[in-house]
Amino acid sequence: MFDILLGDAYLTTEDQNKPHFPHTAHWNSIKTKIIVFAVIATVIPSVSMWWVSYVQNRKFLSEKITQELMDLSAQAAREVDLWFKERLYDVRVFSSSYLLSENLEKIFFTNPRQTETAVALRRLKDYLGSVREKFIPYDELALIDVQGNTVASSAASSNPVNMPEKWLETAQAGKRILGEPYREEGNGAVMVIGEPIQGGQGRLLGVLVAKLNFHTIGSSLESYVQDQEVELQLVTRGGLLLAGSPAARLEAMKRVLPKPIVEKFFSGETGPLGFNDSEGRKVVGTLKKVPELNWGVVAKKDREKAYAQIVRLRNLTLLLVAAVLVGIGLCAYLLGVAMVRPLGLLTRGAARVSAGDLEVDVPVRTRTEIGYLTEVFNHMVAKLREGRQELAAANEALLGKNKQLEHLSITDSLTGLFNRSHLMDTLAGEVARSRRHNRPFTLLIMDIDRFKRFNDTHGHLAGDEALRRTGFLLRDTIRNCDYAARYGGEEFVLILPETGPEQGVETAERIRKQVAEQEMGSDGEPLRVTVSVGVASFPRDGEDPRSLMKRADAALYEAKRRGRNRVVLSGEGRKRKQQETPRQVQSA
Ligand code: GH3
Ligand code: MG
Ligand code: MG
């Protein structure tokens, strides 16, 4: 309490102990804690919800994509199987023509004439040509003899046909020859199908070779693809692309699929597999094997496009989570601000009070506990303020009393002059001052003559009145710079600064006369007293208070001895005593 009263003093002495209010400790503030808590409380459930729903949806969508691709590749594989079986059937039908065996038999075994051979050859060529024209899946139909030489061909200038190994053994066994698909420059993938042609007695006459292309199956595959983004490709286990959809992209598709991907597909036969296709695009695909063949149909889709829905879903849920977070964060921030602002006001108010400023009234802006706390705080500060005002008033009163006490302690109550103890201090001070400045001063000791008798005659009250009046007279007679005190009883002492002995005697004489002339009775009684005065002067009669008092007292004694009502200067010679007229003393 007292510390607060002193205000500034409190600040300087107790500064280190002053509480430090958290103006800048943002990370430690309640507001930050509320925001962090709200964000954590939102992030954990919303992110986990988002994750669960995202994972579920992704699973569902990717299953859907896989199913779509699997269905497509399986359907296409069935179509390819059917198509290929039809082609095999075609070739068997072509080869079973009587025209072929008859003419071949003619050429090889009946030693015909040259013209007959030419006719047979032409017939064969015509047959092959006409069949070839009707069946577009074949690039070329040719007849080869057992030595592998072309006997006749549908093509004008026949390319040498790539016959598979051991074709002759297969043909001799009466079995169909199936070559591996291969790439023909400028034409795409082709494949050789051969059917042995047998004459009478099971003789092998030659082989009808059909060079099959895959253009028509490519077009069929295209009809399967509803989704523009999906591509179908017919591939061999060796990685060769036979056909594909869309046909417009066929040129690009001629490149083989990456070998490890093909291997993976053929070993597992499922999907989906994510991989970079021959053009370097990131795709996702499935494969279905074509029954009885080392071929498979790959259905693939651009991965980005396939998963676009999933990505959209992920982004949407992320956006939702972010929006929820921002909303909750904002609410938490506002709540924090709503709580912290009145707290901040309260804190600053408390800081001012702690610094000694009690003129604080924190506005109550909320009806919450903080508002109540603020009201209590304001009430407390008001009480403190009242207490301080009361104390200030009490202090002021005390100060007045102190002054009064001080005055009383140095004042004689009867005469209003200074008392003896003050006199002794003043005398010591005057001695020191005059010594320092090397200046004189004079001391008078004055005693009322025969005062005992006065009391006895007129009573003590009259004696008191006479003392009081003598005091007033002294106060009115002396100069401002002079000093008068009641030494005790009916004795007074005067200090006259800057005054030499003669001047001192003159003043004493003047006072003596005035006392003698003054009416001392209170109720009109013509009472009078006389005084005797001893005079001592500094430095002439002494240089310290004690010797000066002693010398003045001796002079006073001398004045009494000489008959009273007179002034005697210390050490005054006999000559002066004789010159002086004896005074009247009987009035006392
Ligand atoms: P002298 O001329 O030798 O000084 O004679 P005196 O009677 O004055 O001397 P003394 O010392 O014998 O007497 C002093 C008297 O002063 C005694 C006392 O009654 C009186 N006196 C001292 N103080 C007071 C006071 O306060 N009031 C009154 N009424 N009288 C006082
Ligand atoms: Mg006396
Ligand atoms: Mg006396």
Explained architecture:
- Strands 1, 2, 3, 4, 5 and 6 form a six-stranded antiparallel β-sheet that branches. A five-stranded antiparallel β-sheet has the order 8-7-11-10-9.
- The protein has three domains: 63-306, PAS domain (Beta-Lactamase); 358-403; 420-587, Alpha-Beta Plaits.
- The model is unreliable at 1-16 and 581-588 (pLDDT under 50).
- The chain has 588 residues and is α+β, with helices and mostly antiparallel strands.
- It contains 18 helices and 16 strands.
- Strand 7 (230-236) and strand 8 form a beta hairpin.
- It is rod-shaped and about 210 Å long.
- The relative contact order is 0.08.
- Helices cover 54% and strands 17% of the residues.
- One magnesium ion binds at residues 447, 489-491.
Attribute tags:
588 residues, 3 domains, Beta-Lactamase, binds 3'-deoxy-guanosine-5'-triphosphate, rod-shaped, binds magnesium ion, disordered C terminus, Alpha-Beta Plaits, alpha+beta, six-stranded antiparallel beta sheet, single chain
Summarize the structure.
It is built from 18 helices and 16 strands.
| Terminal Cα span | 62 Å
Can you identify the CATH superfamily of the largest domain? PAS domain
Overall pLDDT metric:
85
What is the number of helices?
18
* CATH class identity of the largest domain: Alpha Beta
Largest sheet: 6 strands, antiparallel
Indicate the low-confidence ranges by residue numbers.
1-16, 581-588
